[in-house]
Every structure is written in C-alpha cells, then in structure tokens.
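Run DUF4292 domain-containing protein through structure prediction, thanks.
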Amino acid sequence: MNFYSHMVEKSLFIFICCGLLFLASCTGTQKLSETDYHSSTKDAKQVVNQLPSYSETLKTAEGKGRAIVSEPGNTERVTLIFASNRAKSLVTVRNSIGIQGGQLLTDGDTLLVYNKVDKYARKIPVRGGNLDHINRLASLNILDILNYTVNLEDVQNVLENDQSFQLLLSTGTKVFINKESHYINEIIQPEDSELPYSKIQYEGYTEINDYMLPRRITIFGAEQKSKIALQLNNLELNSRIDSLTIQLPDDIRIYHQ
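Sure, done. The structure for DUF4292 domain-containing protein is below.
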C-alpha cells in the first residue's frame, strides 16, 4: 500500500470515528433533554391557573381505602376508613382480618394516636415528631393530600421539559405537573422541611362529582426508606360531617411526645 492510500484510509477511519462520536453525543443529548428541566416559556400564573383547585368548593371527604405500608424488613396491609374537613382528619385503621387497631386524629399541627390493641394514646407534633408506619399518612390532612393547592405568590420559578412543568416554591418544595393533563404527578419536599414525608406521587385521576382527584397516592417517609401506597376504593365528597373526635375511654391517659 502506498503512502497516499494509507493516508486516505486513515483519514476515512478518523472521519467515521468522529461521526460515530457525534451521533452518540446527539443521542445522549436527546435522552438528557427528556429528563432535564430548563426555564419555561410559560409564567407561574399560566401554569397555576390550569391546576384543578377546589379549596373553595371541596369542604369534606370521607371514604375507605387500602394501604400497603412498606419499610425495611416489613410490609403490612391495612384498610383505612377516613373522614376529613379543612381543619381536621380522622383515620380509623383495620388490619387484614378486620380487627380495628386504632384511630388517628390530626389538626395539622399535632397527631393524636389511639392504639386500641395496646390501650394507650399519645399526642405527637407533626413537624419534627417521631412519626412512623401509618402515622405519616394520618398526620396529613386528607383533603390537602387529595387536592394539593399551589398559591401563586409562593411560586419562585417555573421550569419545564417535554412532559412536565416543575414549580419551585418559596418553601423549597418542588411540584411536578403533567403538561397534557395539568394534574400534579409528584410533590417533593426539601430535606429540612421537618414534614413526615419526603415526597408524594399521584396516579389514576378520576372524575368524582365534577372533581378530578387521584385514586392512587404514594407517600414516602422523610427518611426515604419507607412508603405508604394508598388505593382509594370509596370516596364521598361534601357530605355532612358533624364532628371529628376520638372518644377515649376514661382509663386511657394521653402521653405527649
């Protein structure tokens, strides 16, 4: 092979390699752009105004659901019966064989836990408290979970990718919204929020009495090692709820934690 032919083949080899590297980089960039967020062409008002917001019309919710509580080394299936207004939420827990294990009442600041099996009651602060198992779900207002409300004045930045908008709130919370449906898919809290959960994921939006609400909700623990997967089977909206209280027996003392 003469010198000229050798140089031509070498140049062709280099050209092909460079072409392959270019194609690989383009493919990598395309995949990256599907997940990476950049500044949105829409402002906060445009995005927030498209979110279903029922804070003014949805006053109560009650129903039943099944939950799978998963944590390292343990998985438990329970049935939850709940009732909630905008101020309080009451959850009754039954195990897989129908035995009522306890009741949990929250006002947003504290959680009152009544354990009927072990016969004790304790009151725990929602922020920074030692919440575990089903307590994480019960410490949150059911209506707030079903219809998470975003206040326009809290939005500091709007990002987007091909599928979703991402709202960055003044609290450090990130809200992910599906571009097509305009429903919230996920909420992620900052590590220093002191809330009992790190993120909430929503699926299975269904119309119920003209309200679009999720049927499947997954709540991840603050330590990100446990989660509660809730499937709503029954849901009644704006029904009359007279009072949300736990009737403790006279011999049950409330411990504060």
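The two ends are 86 Å apart (CA to CA).
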